Each structure stands twice: as structure tokens, then as C-alpha cells.
Amino acid sequence: MTVKRVAIVGAGMAGLMAALALARRGIACDIIEQATRLEEVGAGLQISPNSARILAELGVLKTLEPVWNEPDHIALASGLSLRVLANVPVGRFARERWGAPYGVLHRTTLQRALLTAVEQQPLCSLHLGIRLDHPDMDALASITGSRPDLIVGADGVWSQVRTIVPQAPIPTFSGNIAWRLTVPSRKAPPALKINAVTAFLGPGAHLVSYPLKEIDGYNVVAISTGLNPGQTWQAHANTKQHDLLMSQFSLWHSQIQELLGQAKDATFWPLYEVERGQWHNGRDTVLIGDAAHAMMPFAAQGASMAIEDAARLAIHLGRPGTLPHRLSAFEQERVARTDKVRNRGAFNRFAYHARGPVRLARDFVLSMRSPQSLAADLDWLYGFNAADP
């Protein structure tokens, strides 16, 4: 069966990327989104070489490079002393070793670039302001005017498309929340470096910062245990929640404490994970991105995995065989890849939040690793080429 038309539910990063990748192979795409206009919630985003390579192939990267930052290195530092424990080179090194850049940018910048590319693609049609309580073939056909050959669920961790996939993954709250704030350059403490993505590690929590050219400042995300505010990407903190945040960083360096102490208007969101389950219904529906494999951000690969999904789905749909066979092959391949990334994130979580003797051992081991050896550990991740057969 030749796939000629696809209905994509969700116009976030996964949905827009899937539309571009499929249209490039001659497949018409209807993108259905419940929001009346596309607004990306959040601030910063890290684009690693494995996903930057795909953006380049689709012609999107060239619009991002003039406005993003390419840090020189990724630094792992102690949140208690601010001492740098290890560095992973990126910048020019990333382009030479992995054949693509490592960039940081505002999420809105990427969203706008993808939206512009979709709007310029004649095979893509965007349908906004449409809520689908039961996104089956009949409902989608009534919206688009034609029956799609395939439904792609790109509607995130709380996916509605997931409800029509038997034994689909189940989202669960991880017990962690992520605090989000931006800091103008003129107010940033010395610990925040203009040429680096810095992960500050501490007992039971960690904090990541990197520069955003678009706001002349820094994106800061602090991850710690917290209460679940429900299904939201932007909960507003009250005094009790902010006090809980400060208590979890009470042993940290004064620069970090002062930074968080001034962030009483910061927003936060709950970190949900999606358990293993079926990604497709065996006929005509498949999940991608967070709908299929939402994971903790400890490997900074959530966006990259969604971008990879889009590219690989397009390749699998272009292969011979029945549609169920192609969907099964896509799922099998991507489950293996995302499981490996998830395991890396779990290891990072253990290492980043280590306490007591384990923390001391971690600091010693990191201090003994050369930047080049740490980079080599990431070849399997950053060197991945989604265009490979």
C-alpha cells in the first residue's frame, strides 16, 4: 500500500517535523491542532548534532544558525562549590566530530521556523482550533475532506490519539518538577557562562543554564522533587512551592541560592514519563514523540528524539510492504533507540543527584576523564544519522 495522505494530530515540534519529512517524500499531510494559534510554551532548547543534521536536511537549520548560540562546551559543575568537574567539547568540535552543530535557542525560534517551512510546503495543510475527543478516521475525514491512509499521533504526553491504540504507553508523574526562568545578562551571576551549557549537580537536584541570544540572557531550568500540579506546561508557583524549591537548594552555593531566591515569579511544569507500550494499532495509526516515549530530560534529548522519529517514520513509510509491517518496523527500531537514550538519562539522573560518598566518587571519576573521552562516550548518540537506510 502506498501512503499518499497522512493526518497528523498535534502541531508541536513532532507534528510539524513529521509533516515536513513526509511532504519531502511526496506525502500530503493535514496537521490538526486544538490551539487557535501556535505558541511554544517554555524558553530554552538544546539541539544536539543528531537532530541538527535532520534540520539541515529539511532546510530549517539555515534559518536557525544566525540566531542561536553554539556553546564551546558542555560543563558539569558542582552546585555546592561551582567547581567545574568535567567538560564535553562541542562548538567547532561537534561539527568536526559528528558532522553537525550543537546549538541552543529559544523554543519559539524553532517553532516559528518549522511553522514557516510547513506553510511554504504545498503538500501541508494546517487546521487550527480543532479539538478531537476521539481522533479516528471518520472524525479526521470530516475535518480534512478526505480519508487519510495513516493517522500520526504527535499530540504529546497527554495524547488523545493514544486512546485509540490498544495497549498504548501510559504516562506517569515522575515525582520531579522542572522550574523555568530566564535571567538577563546584566543580572546573571558569574556562575552562568556565555560560552557553555552548564549542568550544576547537587544532592537530589540539578540546575542547567545556557545563553539565549534571542533574549540577551540565560535560560535556567532547575529540576527537583515536587508536587504534581496536573496536566500543564506552565504552573505558577505560590509561596509554599517556592519555599520548597529553596529548601532543596539550601546547601548549594550562594550564587545559585540568590538566583533562585529572586525567582518568585518562575513557572514550573511536572515531568511525566511514558511507560513501554504499543506505538501503533496494527492498521493505520502510529504514535511519535512524547505521545510514544516521553522521558525525563536528564539526557537533553526529548526534542531530538521527536525530530528523529519524524525522519525515520518518513523513511519507513517509503519502504515496500504492508502498512502494518512498516509501522512495526518503525516501532521496533525506535523503541531500541529511545530505550538506550532513556537508560542514559537514568544514569545521568543517578549521577547528577548523587549524595554523600557516591557524590564524592562521582566528582573524582569525572575529574579523571578527558574531554575527548567524554565526547567519545556520546558518539552513539550525537553521531546518529537518521538518513541511513
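the 2nd protein, sequnce then structure:
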Amino acid sequence: MVPNRSVFKLMAYLFFAYSIMTIVMSYMPVYFRYQGMTAKELGILLAVGPLASIFAQPFWGFMSDKFKTIKRILIIVVAGTFIATLGLFQMNNLVGYTIMMFVLFLFLAPVTALGDSLSQKTALQHKVSFGRIRMWGSLGFATSSLLAGYYLTFVGIQFIMFPILVMAIITFVFVLSINDVKATNKPVTILNAVKIGANPRLFTFLLIIIFISITHRTNDNYLGIFVTELGGKESLIGWAWFIGVVSEAIVFFAAAFWFRKFNPLTFLMISAVLYSVRWFLMGAATMPETLLILQALHGLTFGIFYIAAFQIVTKLVPEELQATGHVLFITTFFGISGIIGAFIGGLIIESAGVAQLYSYLGYLSVIGFFGLMIYKFVTENRLGETVEYSNT
């Protein structure tokens, strides 16, 4: 089915929204090192954003469900992202950076999280593949990482603020044109939202996948550092992200074909195995070019994992609280895992080096694999569950 104009507008929004995220995630660590931050201080700074998202994403997700609008919330958070970015680059010390990184992520985190939630709802409404819509976020991530890498290599990392602001302005223009989706008339209360987090099946699922998501978020934070420590320039960081996220977009694009083959939990276990292989090989790398080659595994790890997990969460929460459920998952994946990965990763790098960090990530993915295996056995064999998942 050919997407209509409203779907194309959403695709454009995702493209530029994820462009903001890629510049912040990929190059802010390098900027902070340029500003003289130690590895330990960098770990603190990189943990602040995920900490803010733990508060921001559930709050904005609940507000979206409460007032039955995603678009209006997105208008607020995109505008807030622009203003917070201006404030961040007025700082020049650890305390100032810490405060403004927290403020920035209060707005930036839901820019993509609620965009993904709107994509899931739009996909169901228009009977198109969620992966087909979501891949445009990946393409924005890939394109911006590459172009920003060349831009920063040419002008210097100290001018990172300008591409972030430009992408925020373009994103704001597109968010004004996207369409909301029809919401259920069921009332939403804080008690309803709290009950989602208390759902034992959902809680257990999120607890297990955090072992895998920690490894993913740690790589998000320190890939740029690893590239530069192996002798690569900022442009190579861009190429690393470009290769990884293009492979991710391909997986998203083809999701409607491969996803129906197996149960989502089976795909999660496959991604956990691939994650462990990816990290062990990266830990053994001695040249930055090796990291670029291994980034091709990004699509097969994150792409498979994200779509499968998103589908499981969608089925575990009631319809009227879909946005809250989606951002709860994203908060776990990018927020809680981001804090642990950033802070602990910084400590490991300072004591043992980046290569050793990646070896530890490999072992952590193995633990996640066995956790998913146990979860699948309990939910499908012991409980006799036969949940039907929509094609995505």
C-alpha cells in the first residue's frame, strides 16, 4: 500500500528529529573531551541525558495520553529542544554542562520517543508497515551523522551547536504539518499509568532486555571516543554511524517481510546473540576501519531488537495508554540503560580502556540472551500463551 501525504509528512518529521539526536549522541562526547572533560566527568555528563529522559518520557507520554494528542506535545518539546540547545552552549564548566544537558534531554528525549509512538499508531491506522515509516528516522540519523562528521572535521568540533539548531528549526516546521491519530475515548488517569509499570509481565520483560540495551547505549556513547582513540578523525565517526544506521534502515524497510516469520521473542534472542558477537569483535579491533566494517551489524542487532520489542510492549499495554507504554519501553532502553552504560562505561574506560569495555558488553549480551530464553519458556510454555502480533 502506498503511504498517503500524512504518512509522508510523518516520515519527514522523523528524518529531521533523528538528525538532532544523532548529532547530540555522536558528537557531544567528542565536544566535551575537546572542552577538557576527563573520562570520569564525561561519564557523568553522558549519564545526565538518560537520567532526564527517565522523568521526561513517562511524563510527556502520559500527557499525550491524557490530552489525547501527540502532535501538540511534540510542538512543545521540539521548541524546548531549540531553546535548551542555545542555553547549553553558553556554559563552560562541568556544573553548567551538567545542568543544561539535563534540561536539554527533558525536551529532546520525547522528540523521537513520541515520534515512534505516533508512527506505530499511524501504521495501524493507515495499514502500512511501522518499519517502513520508522526507517526514515534511521535515514535521518545516518545522513546527519555523515554530513556532520565532514562539517565538524572542516570547521572544528567547537561549532557543533549550529547543525543542532538548524535541524531543530526544520523539525519544528514539519511537526506543525503532521497529523494526529484518532484517540480512544477511554479516560486516562495517573493510576492507570502507574498500573502499567506494575504489570508483572511487562516489568519482567523490561528488566531482562535492559541487559542488552545497556550494551547498545554504551556503544552509542563511546563509539566516537573509540574511533578517535584508534586514530580516526571526526569524519570517520560520521561514516561509522552512517554505515550502522543505513543497515538499520534496510532492516526496518524489510520488516513487513521478515517479521512475520517467527515470534517476536525469537527475534529478540537472535539479536542478543548478534549483539554479543558484535561487541566481542569490536573489543578486538586495533584499527578504526575495523569498527566501520562491524557497524554493518548495527541493523541486524538494533533493527531486529527494536521492532520486536516494540511489538511486544504494544500487546502488553491497553490501547488508551499506548503512548505511555511505548515511552516506558523507550525510557528503559535509552534512559535507564543510558545512565548505567554512560557512568559505568566511563569508569571502565578510565581503569581498563575502551577495548576492555566492549568485551564486557559482549558478556552482558549473553546474559540477556539467556534471560530472554527463560522468559520465552515461561510465557509461552508454562502459561500456554498464544498472543497474535500484528505485521509490522
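Residues 5-382 form a domain with the Growth Hormone; Chain: A; fold (CATH 1.20.1250.20). Residues 383-392 have pLDDT under 50 and may be disordered.
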